[in-house]
Amino acid sequence: MNVTTGLMHEHNAILVALDILDRICDRVDAGEELPPGDVSRILDFLRDFADGCHHAKEEKYLFPALRDAGLPAEGGPVGVMLAEHALGRKYIREMVAALGGDRVPASPAQFTRSARAYANLLRAHIGKENGVLFPMAERLIPPAVQSHLADSFARLEEERTGPGVHERYHAMLRELGGIYAAEVHDAN
C-alpha cells in the first residue's frame, strides 16, 4: 500500500464531516435550534482528527520526507499546504469562539461564515493533496522511506487518538450524516 492511501481514506472521512458541517450551517442560517452536542462533536472531529492527527502526520512526517526527496519546503506545494493548515486552524478557532456556553452558536453569523470558509478551504486543499502532492510523494519518496512513514503514521495515530478512536469517529459521522445530510458519503 502506498503511504498516501491511508491519508486519502482520511480525506474521505474529512469530506463527510465537511458535508455535515455544511448542513449544520444551513440549519443555523435558517434559525433552527440544533442539539447542543452536535456542533461540538463535529468541531471535536475537525480539531482532533483532521488537524490533530491527519495534518500532524503530514507536517511531522510526510512534508519533511518530501523536502528530503528534493521538494522545496518554502514556496512550493508543501509551503502552500502548510499555509492552508494554519488558515484552517484559524477558522476552527473562529468557530469555537462563536459558540455559546452550551456549544450552540451564540454568534450564528460568525459561526457559519468561518465554518463555510473552512469547508471551502479544506475541500480545495484535499483536491490539491490528492491530485498533486500525493502523486508527487509516491514518485519522489523511495519505497523504504514510505514504509517507515507508514509506521510513523501508525505510531502518531496511536499516540494522538488512541485505539478505537477512528472507529468511534466513523460511527459519529454516520450518525450525524443521518441527521444532517440526505446523502452523505460513507467515511469508511
The major pleated sheet works out as: none
Unreliable runs: 183-188
Oligomer state equals: single chain
The count of helical stretches stands at: 6
- How far apart are the first and last residues' alpha carbons, in Å? 17 Å
Report the radius of gyration as a whole number of Å: 17 Å
Order of helices and strands: HHHHHH
Q: Quick one: how many beta strands?
A: 0
Query: Mean pLDDT, as a whole number?
Result: 89
Instruction: Please report which band the strand proportion falls in: under 5%, 5-15%, 15-25%, 25-35%, 35-45% or over 45%.
Output: under 5%
Shape: elongated
In short:
The protein is mainly alpha-helical and 188 residues long. Helices cover 79% and strands 0% of the residues.
Based on the model shown, name its key terms.
188 residues, 6 helices, mainly alpha, single chain
Structure description:
By secondary structure, the chain is an all-alpha fold. Helices cover 79% and strands 0% of the residues. The longest helix is centred in the N-terminal third of the chain and has 33 residues, at 36-68. The model is unreliable at 183-188 (pLDDT under 50).
